[in-house]
Amino acid sequence: MGILPELTERFKALASHYLFEPCFARPGEGHDKGSVEARGKGLRLQHLTPVPRGKSLAEMSSALLDEVEAAWRKRIQRDGRRCYDLWQEEQERLLPLPERPFEARKTLLVPVSSKSTVQIGAATYSVSSGWARLEATAYVGVEDIRLVCRGETEVVPKQRRGGKRISYLHYLPELARKPQAVRQVAPELVAELGEPYGRLWSLLIGRYGAKEAARVLSRVLGAVVDHGSETVAEALEAALDAGRCDLLAMAGRLQKANTVVEVPMALRSYEIEAGSPADYDVLLRGGVR
Fold it and tell me: Full-prediction pTM beyond 0.70?
């Protein structure tokens, strides 16, 4: 009696998703799948020699798939027919694929610590401070991890075993209340926020010193929490271009940005006349003017 292969959980899920029965060669009997081995060797010699290079595994994989696809489209059978044309005929006879593609990533439920961090594969990742003490779902890929909690999604680069990735953007609400903490992490924080925040921090340091600069920056972070990074960045750009780095220079622009209301197309044809306080007196008495 032969030894039955043991399937991993993700392979079982793959077979269940696409409704196929796994069929394996016998252990130690490579000739059972000789054509597969030969095809694999041919692909390696044609497309993987020399070894591909690229900035990321995703970039190399995409380039390799495009190259293999282009070569396959040109391939012609002995009878003169193209493999691509035969595949088009074959597709019409196949069962339709499921509506959703298979999620090949490993799925884990991970607890979020009180410090808004999760532990995945002996590596540590920070997440939004609003996720603290909750449970998140981690979809672990080859290069990155997709974290989902409370309807929110974050994608973080995968770290090596024992590695740590902490983003201070996850702690903006807390940093807005703790200027001393802002002072300690300001260089890394403004680097994550990008410009013009780095420019603002340099001006604040030069004008007020580190302690007072951290207090001002913490108030700016509070505005980021309330209004969003892009809106505050626009207000900052205008203030800095005017030669100012105080909060009052930002306030008017932020207030104007928050009072702009987009009128729905269906209501743009209506003209609303100005009312007077007397109109409301009549309405309060239940009368009609």
Answer: no
